[in-house]
Amino acid sequence: MTTLKRAIIKIGSHSLTSSQGGLNGVVIDRLAWAIAALREYGVECILVSSGAVAAGMAKLGLKKKPKDIAGKQAAAAVGQGILIEKYAYFFEKYNLTCAQILLSRIDLVESAHYRNAQNTLERLLKYGIVPIVNENDTVVYEELCFGDNDKLSALVAGIVDADILIMLTDVDGLFTANPAKNKDARLIPLVEDINSVKALAQGVGSEVGTGGMITKLRAAEIATRCGIATFLMNASRLPEITKIAEGKYTLGT
């Protein structure tokens, strides 16, 4: 049996959206299956999910992410309900119940807020529920935002003392160069010193996302300080996620 007892799974907007815009039901279905499969191994899962703004953009008919705060928050307000409804629908297919947790930075800074978030997450796990965590984009302002859900996922991992943080991306992991631009780029299967590879991860995120590889490395740095392993893998390889529970890591970093 696996020695893993608790996993944080983070998925970004780019992996969740379709080429036509809006949420990709195939990906959400596959993600729900993967979490159900991990639970069969006795692994409790918390999902940190982006996608509210992207879902709202599609509903509002927006082709590009709003640049102003009010526009982003309006898109998030519309999209948050769409996002959790999609998750609830697909999770139910695998006899899973999910719960939405919206956090802002103050919830992880103020001790009373921190304990409340921690206690709620622990109780949901005790009840067999899959918490779905996102930043409270509809009301948060710059001074109180995390900046990206990569960082949030690492902080949540620390709150619940997770064994592993699994970050789903649209590439196979960290490469020696951008694989989309350099055919000689090689996958780095193991990183022992994050500072040694930060220069490889410079760049910006997608049209619908806020992160990039550099934010994932920063998240890994936070997680490893808490003694939590971090694994980067391609969201398209979700069917292989049970290999992690078996101690046989799939392609990734």
Describe this entry's structure for a reader:
The protein has one domain: Acetylglutamate kinase-like (Carbamate kinase). Helices cover 39% and strands 14% of the residues. A six-stranded parallel sheet has the order 3-4-2-1-5-6, with helices on both faces. α5 links the parallel β3 and β4. It starts with 5 loop residues before the first strand and ends in an 8-residue tail after the last helix. About 4% of the residues have low confidence.
Secondary-structure element sequence?
Answer: EHHEHHEHEHEHEH
SS content category: alpha/beta
Report the biggest beta sheet as strand number plus sense, adding barrel if it closes: 6 strands, parallel
- What's the CATH superfamily, by name? Acetylglutamate kinase-like
List low-pLDDT spans: 203-211
Distance from first to last alpha carbon:
23 Å
Q: CATH topology, which one?
A: Carbamate kinase
> What's the total helix number?
8
- Reported CATH architecture: 3-Layer(aba) Sandwich
Strands ordered across the widest β-sheet: 3-4-2-1-5-6
Total number of beta strands:
6
Helix content class = 25-40%
In percent, how much strand structure appears in the residues? 5-15%
- Quickly count the domains: 1
CATH class: Alpha Beta
Rg measurement, Å: 17 Å
The overall average pLDDT, rounded, is: 86
The coarse overall form would be globular
